[in-house]
Design goal:
Blueprint lengths: L1 H10 L1 H26 L5 H13 L3 H9 L5 H10 L6 H20 L2 H31 L8 H59 L3
Amino acid sequence: MEGFARWMTDGGIWMYFILAVGILSLGVAAERFFFLFFRYNINAAAFMAQVNKLVLANSVDKAIKLCNAAPTAALARVIKAGLAKAGRPGDEIQNALEEMTLEVSPIVQKRTQALQALANIATLLGLLGTIDGMIDAFAATSDEKIPQADRPKELSKAISKAMLTTAFGLIIAIPTMGFHVFLTGVTKRILDEIDLYSLKLKNILTSRGGQS
C-alpha cells in the first residue's frame, strides 16, 4: 500500500482521475456480470426443449408457466410473448416475438458499451498526465528560478510523473477492455439465442395451428 500511495502522490492529480475511472469501470463490469449471468441468462437449449415438448403436447398454458418461472430471463420473456399468441396467425406471433425482442435487447445491452468508453478515457487521462509531466520536465530545465543543483531532481520528478500516469492509465484501460470484450460476447450469445429460438417457436406454433 505504501508503494501505491507513493505512486499516487508522485503521479499528481491525474492519478486520482484515472483511479476514479478504474473504480467506475469495476462497478459497471460487476453489475453487468451479475445481470448477464444471474438475471438475463438461462440454459437456452434445456429451456426450449421443455417448451417445445409442452407445445407439441398441446400444453401451452404449462409452457407459459415455465416462462413465468424465469421472469427476468430475456429468452423466457420473448418466448412467453410468442406463446401468448398461440393459435393466432403467423404474422401476429411474429409481431409479438419481435416486439418483445425489441423491448429486452436494450436491457441486455445496457452499459456494456460504456466499458469501452471508460477504457478510452483512462488511456487519454494517462496521456494527459504524460503531457503534463513533460511540460514540467521542460520547465525544470529552462526555469531560471530553479537552482541549477535542484534541476536534476525536478526533472526526475517530472519524468516520473509522466511515466506513472501513462502506466496507470494502461493498467486501468487494459482490464476494462478485457471486461468489455468478454461481456459483449455474453450479450451477443443471449441475443443470438433469442433470435434463433424465437424463430423456431414461431415455426412450431404456426405449423401446430395450421397457420402460415
